[in-house]
Amino acid sequence: xxxxxxSFAIAETLAxxxxxxxxxxxxxxxxxxxxxxxxxxxxxxxxALLVSAVSSPVVGRLIDRGYxxxxxxxxxxxxxxxxxxxxxVTELWQFYAIWAGLGLAMAGSLYDACFAIITLCLGKEAxxxxxxxxxxxxxxxxxxxxxxxVLNGVLGWRxxxxxxxxxxxxxxxxxMAHGCYHALRSKDVCAKAPLKSIKQSLSVLSSFRxxxxxxxxxxxxxxxxxxxxxxxxxFHDRGIGPAFAVVLASxxxxxxxxxxxxxxxxxxxxxxxxxxxxxxCAMLFAAIALYFGALAPPLVILxxxxxxxxxxxxxxxxxxxxxxxxxxxDFGLVAGVLAMTFLIGAAFAPLLGSFLWESGxxxxxxxITAFLPAFSAVFLVLxxxxxxxxxxxxxx
Length: 396
Prior knowledge:
The chain is an all-alpha fold. It folds into 2 domains: 2-185, Growth Hormone, Chain: A; 202-385, Growth Hormone, Chain: A. 83% of the residues lie in helices and 0% in strands. The longest helix is centred in the last third of the chain and has 55 residues, at 331-385. The two termini are 18 Å apart.
């Protein structure tokens, strides 16, 4: 198991740093260098997330059918090629085309694909494996931002992208291949073979639990996406200085790792259900703390702790929820379909946040982001209560 987990952990850390977090890291640089508006540039990232969402069911099906290594390593290899092409762009249409391709690469090589492989191959050990991977990969953003700053100062943004492409091609791809090789050799013998018919596999769409889970994932993704996209602006609105705001933002990643570490400590004494509800409550508390941050500045620090830890758990517990409530047969396809709701929420969260801000300022934004995890928890409760084959209090 260690060969699988460490290979995936290092590969995912570098992958997220190299072709996900580089977008916000390079955004101000591209705005000046390419001369495109911030709105135009961020539209490309939204497109990437939408492409990733639409591609996720296909990626999941391929993993179910035994093509995990091809999909996983192929996605990373494709990303490396696209990063080289991205370093040469001069036109906006080129920028959009490449990020659309990177959306496809993300679907094949980031968390959802990785978690599907781990869940299918490690069985009951999947949750612990996923947690270990994300304990390391949680530092991807912390690695990406300073790397971009240093490399851009030395090589410029075009040269920096070549370095990131080389890292993906020479480190991520071999590590993913190595991890997949050992994962497939130790594949859980209890895992059911995928159904041959797509129609049969997608019969889960008629399940009440499926839709409750999907809505819950959408709401939790919207809540976090709105907060992250507008975080620095909200800090400014709450009277936080620019330097301290950057420090606070940089702590979110380590707080995610803290939240995931707590799972390892308390997993034997709690349930998946309680972990989910507790994490969503932490996100609700975070939004409320930030709402009152202008009146009591220390509450902003509590926001960072609660939001980081809560989201750190929520973002990785999704495959465990799916496996417990919907089973592991055709897991890749089912998880891929549910990933669509999660990624669509992430794609449209910044736009929804802007609309809410225009309607009533950041007070309204924060109130809505507090209600979203609360409703997400309600839908999860409905999903668990509707589960007839397993008791609510089933342990992990």
